TrEMBL record:
Organism: Kibdelosporangium phytohabitans
InterPro entries: Aminoglycoside_PTrfase, Aminotrans_3, Dup_hybrid_motif, Kinase-like_dom_sf, PyrdxlP-dep_Trfase, PyrdxlP-dep_Trfase_major, PyrdxlP-dep_Trfase_small
Entry protein name: Aminoglycoside phosphotransferase domain-containing protein
Domain called Aminoglycoside phosphotransferase: residue spans: 41-267
CDD domains in UniProt: M23_peptidase, OAT_like
Amino acid sequence: MSAVDSRYQRITAGVPELDDGTVRDVLRDGFGVTAVRTRPLAGETDRNLWVADESGVEYVFKVCSADDLAAVRFQNALLRHLAGHAPDLPVPQVVGDVIPVAGDLVARLLTWLPGAPLAEVGRRSAELVADVGAMAGKLAAATTTWRHPDLPPPHYWEFPHAPTALAESLPAVADPGLRASIALVEAEFVPALDQLAALPQGVVHHDLNAFNILVGPGPVRRVIGVIDFGDAQRTARVADLAVLLASAMRGQPHPLRVAAALTAAYHRVCPLTEAELDLLFPMLAVRAATVAATTARLHSASSHGDPRHRSPAAADLVRVVAEIPAHVGAATLRQACGLSAHPACDAVTGWVTANPGGAIVGFDLPPVDLSAGSAVFDDVDPRDPAALRAAESAAARSSIGRYGEPRFADGGAVRTGLDVFAAAGTPVTAPLNGTVEPGNPAADLVLRHEPAPGVRFWTIYNGLSSAGSGKVTAGQRIGEIGPAERLLVQLSVFPLTGWRQVPGTVAHEDAPVWQQLLPDPSPLVGGAVWTPATERALESRERHLPRTHPTYFSAPVNMVRARDCRFYDETGRGYLDALNNVTLLGHAHPRLVAAATRQLKRLNTNSRFVYDVLTEYAEALTATLPAGLDVVYFLNSGSEANDLALRMARYISGRDNVVIIDDAYHGYTTTVADVSPSRYKHYGKPDTTHPTPVPDRYRGAYGYDDPDAGPKYAQHVIDTIDEVNPAAFLYEALLAGGGQVVLPPGYLAPIHDAARQRGVFTIADEVQVGFGRLGEAFWGFQTQDVVPDFVTMGKAMGNGFPVAALVTTREISEAFDRTGRFFSTYGGNPVSCAVGLELLRVMDEERLQDNALTVGQYLRDQLSGLATRHPLIGDVRGQGFYSGVEFVLDRTTKKPAIPETLTVCERMKEEGVLVYPTGPSWNILKIKPPLTFTRAHADEMTAALDRVLEAGW
């Protein structure tokens, strides 16, 4: 057995424990530390003890064999170097010197670093991953330039020893699948380790795994410690990064993306050479295989092997990396660092672009759009994969699919080649001179092309019923399209030796790498390329829309269709809609689509003509309201409805003042903007507008624990009414813009009584909260047992179609008639009425108000459960399907978590769930999904929020 192997066997035998008295004596006499508390710590080769002195300062007391004295002094010298040359790196500080203790043991003392091991942080934000990578780069920059005269002896985990470690351990791997994966890594990547000596060298940590990196508490997690320099050694500089990647990738859903992010962050701090990048993936694969194989060898009850590596994730990672071709692994890491994915990329794409060819089937085929935005899928439910596939097949006959297109029928996966859809038996010809590479299981036919010095690439064909052999010339027949009537043509910059399959589709996130490895073949064979429309759309908005016109999210999403509770963007990705209170019945409800289409075919005009659907709708709408509210003014938007209500109240009362609730929003016209604090606070409050306190039981003067909060908040309104003698009191039955604030019980009734006694009109703004959304009642004001003088409505009234109305009494209407006729050209048009009428029928038949009541409460219960684990959540409130989650930095001070809330929304979008901030401080998630939202949707949203808050940022 080699010296390296013998040392490994010796150190795993362990170090004897010191009794407590001896430990305290050594600490006191050798290091000047009076230990008050101690506890044992894990360690593979040392005995480690956590120590706290009488002043609360914490240390790590380490005991090891005197045989390791030279290595210990090397480590101390390295830590002192870091303290002097990289003081911002969070590494332990050396206290005193090495002290001999009982027998052949030595002891040393280091400062304690707090934090949780990265390995115990289940979900990691992109910021944390970047911080880990940057820390590794800073460490490499500080250590690899350091020199020491006495290097420690080699050890088991060094990369040059990997062939021996794998050979010794592989027979102990019982799982045949794992054994095959390790053997594959051994065969493909171990030979590459011969290049290690040619890479930049230096002293490295050499055990920079996820257990030796400490991070702070969430949600803003960062690296606050790097520990355990016991394996520090002079070797290839990139070894540290390879060890880090092989550890940090474990258990992650997309390990190669994690590796790319870590490598990019490292590279920004400590630039890697091209040779290092090309060897990095083989090194991480070998490290992962060595850990898994060694774990299997040492996995026994009496083993002294490191238990940290025994997680199944170590073996799972080997299975993953064994399936990643070397070209792909290297390409991903190269591109992350700003290099081309493959050295041949530029030469190949340059030549192909400069030398266009023609159709390989003898005739030109029209391109077919099979993306999510295609009209092909307009009559297809996007939630039905079989229907999507059938529509795709029907549309794609005798056409050519676009390169780079995210196919809707493939769930948004991106095509890495061109699809030629043509009849079986259609001859296929070579695009240029080439040589057939036979026997490749990855394709029906592979042609190698070397059209110019230094230019070599391959064309790949899948879907041929027969294929040629030997050398071929441009235009020569190379086979026929097979019975599937579909030929996939791809171009590769790398040889396909050893490939079992070349992917026809890849995930959208991985497409940039693959599109360099498998670039666009359309210049050679004809065809089209899919290009995203988002950038063009944003540029057009920039040119033609006001600068203040908002968009959701820092990276706006180009939505191309929606159905029920999901949006779909141009890449085909679906997003759960927990935001849009306009589409009450869900997006594109088939019955509403049919009603609008049917009516458009029959009649659409203005309401000065007589047509039955208007009166049918007016009767159905007023039937949902209390008796007496039976005169309907049809309009186009909620802003118009509120504007008209205020105009009527002011005319009839002869007064101009209006009392409102602070932080409310009632619309965009001049009149209603003047009674909307979220608008007039930008230009000054009009003298006729009089805000009253928000009845917020979380932040306001009267809290959840005050049973009289409602009447107390109401008194502020009554006092204001008495003071200013207004025309009207305008309110929402749940404050939307004010922060999803639920009105406390007993709030509206005394206000209504006082207003009626004083001749003040009451206006219930139901634009956002009406139509069963609050669950308990059809109209929000009904949850407080009041009847207003005016009810305004819009938004959800037409499920996204522009329908709005003001409903009042006949007496009030006739009093307003003295001003002359009121008429809205489009208000109450036949199509609007048909849509609105069908919406009421669907709501009743599908019992959506009941769904809002039960599922809305279920959703809040789930969200409240998250609050027990995530202190950022200060309050969860709402009624029905109108809920709010308020984020605070401190639950005692209730300081709003403003940027954090927007970050949560951005991360939720990345998780495929749409929510957005609201409230005066924009620290509240507004949650107002369609009334078709199910418990499954609620679970999906809650799980996404849990993941976001756990990962932090």
